Amino acid sequence: MIKKLYKQAYNFERQTLQLDVCNDEMSVIDLDKLSERLATDEDDIEILLKPNERQLSHLVDEKHNWVADIDPLLFLDMTTFGLKHIQEILDAAQPLNVYKSDKAQDNMVVHPSLSIDKETGQIEGHEGRHRAAAVHLAGGKYYRIGLKLRTESRSHGISAMPWIWIGQFNGKRFDIKSLIAKNKIKIIDTTVQKDYWR
Fold this sequence. Notes:
By secondary structure, the chain is α+β, with helices and mostly antiparallel strands. It has one domain. 43% of the residues lie in helices and 16% in strands. The protein contains 10 helices and 7 strands. The strands form 2 sheets. A 5-stranded mixed sheet has the order 3-2-4-1-7. Strands 5-6 form a two-stranded antiparallel ribbon. A hairpin with a 6-residue loop joins β2 and β3. α1 packs across α6 and α5 runs antiparallel to α9. It is globular. The N terminus and C terminus are likely disordered.
């Protein structure tokens, strides 16, 4: 089992390296059309671990700018030192039903998230790696997170997003337009609202 999971992570590493070389091709995506397409793609997404009400309040209170669905293994790639670290988190993660239990949900106040420097694209903070690992191990295609720009405003539109992100610990470059085009990331809300799930 461990060997198989490590191979998945290795294959993902190769994929991200390939994505890095197609920046020029992806830079011509029209942002308005992209925004429209993303908004209409939400219906076919199954989220295995939905945020609870307190997490949604946290999302607003902490001034997150957007909500996104992301490949859980991509989330781990962005927030770890490398393949060995990813494997350690996959090994340490509890089964998904543990995170979905009433007891766990009572203690889960912080929304899964990434904090990104608006100017450099550097990922500066994260929350929810073990939950992402649990979603991945359960076969989930997407993991719901908040995206927060390092800025005082919560009203930035999608055009304010830095389109190259830098891994929090590994220094890898992630071409976000390319990842969106490949359905590894879906921006589903650019105006975070308190009543998002109601």
